[in-house]
Each structure stands twice: as structure tokens, then as C-alpha cells.
């Protein structure tokens, strides 16, 4: 039985610093629970001078050479917190091939190259865990892999990006402009080093790919998802949405359609009484519908150093436990690939669309009447004569129907806002 396991950190940024601090606080408890003392031995950094005082306080060494960690016989576990694909992927593969267990929070990497890495970990019978990659501090992947193992999930809808949820909350509640809200999220350490992935929905897409694998065994690629970020969310549309009883949220969704799944990330109107509408700031929530449990919500801080670090620590505990129990290191996700992607054309969604009008109110009324006669299910219509604006909610559109409708609406003026609508619109 191992009494001590030594850790090598790759990177010493916001989350890694949190890991060092949380481990210092929890080391004794983890040792009591697992029988293993977890100790940070070394950290790979670019600039050892900058981090020297911190490393000294916490009693570990700094290095600029990868092999000091991956080829160090003393080190049992490598925690990768550099992010992005290269060189993180090569570093992780090197560590695994050298028989180290690996823990990471790198959603970009798992979403795009997860399978390849999982195969290497399996061949080496070492642990490869990534609880922190989705939902920051929320226990999500482990419950999906265990508590839902006997259930059948039909849909997973989530607010899985803390930065954009923080921004939308501040834009709606404090009337902050987009740029100020983004700067605040960056200063709080929520955003990626390049926040493009946050605001354009890519970070959320990576997380939905991972959730899709745990919920359905789906093997989704980024190009399989319809992805829209929050750049074009207009203050005027948010106001209309709120007056109709909705909040605007960036929602990632993977849902079952027939024998397959479909996946998307987009700004969506969420009814104020839906649990996801109540999730504010950097908090994330994943709303799961399944045959056995019914509806459940996993909620918590989706970004930030200490919550994310705590998820990393949970993975360390799993490695310590399995090492002590001499258990095999089976892949983290036990769902087998069995959910093909369905053709989006078979999926009907509801949309909110607003148009800055060039036609008169009477002509607009006639135009909307015409849409209804053509079979469009217009469930909400408002013509704001003061601001020359038409707002519509149209239900049950395939992607082709939706594009055709946008073309028709363009004859009335400029399309200002396009948002998805969750559920059927009910004027009461
Ligand atoms: N940039 C990410 C977010 C960090 O804002 O959710 C956590 O994955």
C-alpha cells in the first residue's frame, strides 16, 4: 500500500495556484479518508523567478524542464493545467506513457482528442480524470458516470460557461455594456486567456461534447454542433425578452431525437420560472431529464480558482482510492458510443426574432398575417411603432424553415436579434 503519492504540476496559473492552496488545506483530511498523503513535489513553469516565493511557501520545487516531472520516478500523478491543445496534449501523453496518472481541467483537449488520450491511459492502466473540465466546481462528470449509470438520459441542457453567464447577468441586472462586463469577468479570473472561446460559445461547445459523451455515449465533434455565442445579443431584445417573462441565457444542449442525438449552443430565452433562469453570474447549472429520476439540476460555481481546484482534488482522491484498493483504472466515462448524430433537419425549434422595420405598421401587420397564412406558427407578435421594431416568436421551425423565414423578414428591414426559445411560448 502506498502511503504517499507525489504530484507534478504542469502550469502554475489561476487554477493550479488554487490546487496548491486547497491541497494544503485538505491534505490531512484526504490522508485520513484515503490513507494516502498527497504532496506537490514540482511544478513546471515558464518563469521560475515569478513563482519562487509561492513555491517556497508551499515547499515544492520549480522547473522549466518537462522531463523533471514526466521522467521523475518519484512523481506518481501529473496535473495538467496549461490549457489548450499544444503542448498540453504532448505533455499528457508523455506523462501517461511514463506510467503517471493524469488529472486535467482541459476541456478543449478532451473534447477534441479525448478518445486518443483515454486509449493510452487504458493501455497503461493509469488514471486519467477530468472532473474540473466541465462546470468548474460542480460535481458533474462523476455523478453522470455513477449516479446516472442505471438511468436513461433524454436531454442535458446547461449553462456551462461562467464568463458569459456572468456577462449576461451584469448586462441584464446592472445594465453594464458588453465590454465592461467582459473585462470584469476577465479580472475575476473566469475567462479563458483568449476570451473568444467564451463569448463565441466554443468553450460551452467543448463542455457539451464532454457532457454528451457521459450522458449518451455520443462522440460529437465541434462541427456537429450548431454554435452561436453572445456577441450579437442586443440590449433591446433582452428587454423585450424580460417583459415577456424570459431571461436570456447561453444554453448548451444535447438531446435525444429518435435513436440519435442533436447538440447546440446558443443564446436562448428561458422562462423565468425554469430552474436555469435562476442561475446567475459565474454559476453554472446542468438540467438533466432522464427516464428514472425525471428532472434534476446540478448547480454550482462554473469557474474560479478554488471551486475548479476542488474538482481537481476530487480526481486525486479517486486515484488515491484506486491505488489503495488495487483497483484497475477503467476509463472515467463508462458509456459506450451508441448515440449517432441525427440530421438537424429533423429537429424543430422555436425562435425569437426582432427586425428593425423599414415598412409601415399596417404593412407589417399584413406581412405577419401572410406568414400565419403560409403556416408559420407565430405565437407572439409585437410591433413597436415608436422604435420601428417588430418582435416575433415563431414555433416549430426546422433549420431550413428558419432560414427561409429570415429571408422573408429581411424584406421588412434589418434583422436585429435572433434567439432560441426554450419550450413553447405561453402568453400567460
Ligand atoms: N472560461 C471558463 C468559463 C472557465 O468561463 O466557464 C471554466 O471552464
CATH class of the largest domain: Alpha Beta
Distance between the termini: 63 Å
| CATH fold field value of the largest domain | Dihydrodipicolinate Reductase, domain 2
Q: Which range does the strand content fall in?
A: 25-35%
The Rg value, from CA coordinates, equals: 24 Å
- Show unreliable segments: none
Q: Quick check: average pLDDT?
A: 95
Number of domains: 3
**Largest sheet features:** 10 strands, mixed
- Overall geometry comes to elongated
What oligomeric state do the depicted chains represent?
single chain
Helix-strand topology string:
EHEHEHEHEHEHEHHHHEHEEEEHEHEEHE
Give the count of helical stretches.
14
In this entry the ligands are: L-homoserine
What would you give as the CATH superfamily of the largest domain? Dihydrodipicolinate Reductase, domain 2
Class by helix and strand content?
A: alpha/beta
State the CATH architecture of the largest domain.
2-Layer Sandwich
Q: What is the helix fraction of residues, given as a range?
A: 25-40%
Amino acid at each position: 500500500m502506498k502511503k504517499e503519492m507525489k504530484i507534478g504540476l504542469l502550469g502554475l496559473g489561476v487554477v493550479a495556484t488554487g490546487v496548491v492552496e486547497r491541497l494544503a488545506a485538505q491534505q490531512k483530511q484526504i490522508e485520513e479518508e484515503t490513507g494516502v498523503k498527497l504532496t506537490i513535489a514540482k511544478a513546471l513553469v515558464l518563469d521560475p523567478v515569478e513563482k519562487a516565493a509561492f513555491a517556497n511557501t508551499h515547499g515544492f520545487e520549480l522547473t522549466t524542464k518537462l522531463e523533471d516531472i514526466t521522467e521523475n520516478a518519484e512523481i506518481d500523478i501529473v496535473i495538467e493545467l496549461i490549457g489548450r491543445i499544444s503542448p498540453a496534449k504532448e505533455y499528457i501523453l508523455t506523462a501517461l506513457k511514463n506510467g503517471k496518472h493524469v488529472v486535467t481541467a482541459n476541456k478543449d483537449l478532451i473534447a477534441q482528442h479525448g478518445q486518443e488520450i483515454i486509449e493510452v491511459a487504458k493501455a497503461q492502466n493509469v488514471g486519467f480524470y477530468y472532473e474540473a473540465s466541465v462546470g468548474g466546481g460542480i460535481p458533474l462528470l462523476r455523478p453522470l458516470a455513477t449516479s446516472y449509470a442505471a438511468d436513461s438520459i433524454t436531454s442535458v441542457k446547461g449553462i456551462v460557461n461562467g464568463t458569459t453567464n456572468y456577462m449576461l447577468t451584469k448586462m441584464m441586472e446592472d445594465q453594464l455594456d458588453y465590454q465592461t462586463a467582459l473585462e470584469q469577468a476577465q479580472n475575476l479570473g473566469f475567462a479563458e486567456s483568449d476570451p473568444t472561446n467564451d463569448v463565441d460559445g466554443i468553450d460551452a461547445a467543448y463542455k457539451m461534447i464532454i457532457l454528451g459523451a457521459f450522458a449518451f455515449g455520443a462522440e460529437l465533434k465541434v462541427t456537429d454542433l450548431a454554435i452561436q455565442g453572445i456577441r450579437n445579443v442586443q440590449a433591446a431584445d433582452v428587454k423585450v425578452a424580460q417583459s415577456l417573462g424570459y431571461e436570456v441565457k447561453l444554453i448548451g444542449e444535447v438531446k435525444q431525437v429518435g435513436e440519435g442525438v442533436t447538440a447546440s449552443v446558443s443564446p436562448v430565452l428561458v422562462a423565468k420560472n425554469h430552474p436555469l433562469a435562476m442561475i446567475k453570474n459565474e454559476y453554472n447549472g446542468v438540467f438533466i431529464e432522464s427516464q428514472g429520476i425525471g428532472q434534476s439540476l446540478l448547480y454550482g460555481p462554473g469557474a474560479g480558482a478554488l471551486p475548479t481546484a476542488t474538482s481537481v482534488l476530487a480526481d486525486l482522491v479517486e486515484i488515491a482510492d484506486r491505488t489503495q484498493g488495487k483497483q484497475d483504472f477503467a476509463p472515467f466515462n463508462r458509456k459506450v458510443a451508441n448515440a449517432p448524430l441525427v440530421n438537424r433537419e429533423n429537429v424543430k425549434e422555436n425562435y425569437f426574432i426582432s427586425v428593425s422595420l423599414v415598412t409601415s405598421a399596417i404593412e407589417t401587420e399584413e406581412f405577419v398575417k401572410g406568414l400565419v397564412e403560409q403556416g408559420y406558427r407565430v405565437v407572439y407578435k409585437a410591433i413597436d411603432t415608436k422604435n420601428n421594431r417588430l418582435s416575433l416568436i415563431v414555433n416549430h421551425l426546422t433549420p431550413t424553415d428558419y432560414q427561409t423565414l429570415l429571408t422573408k423578414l429581411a424584406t421588412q428591414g434589418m434583422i436585429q436579434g435572433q434567439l432560441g426559445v426554450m419550450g413553447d411560448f405561453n402568453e400567460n
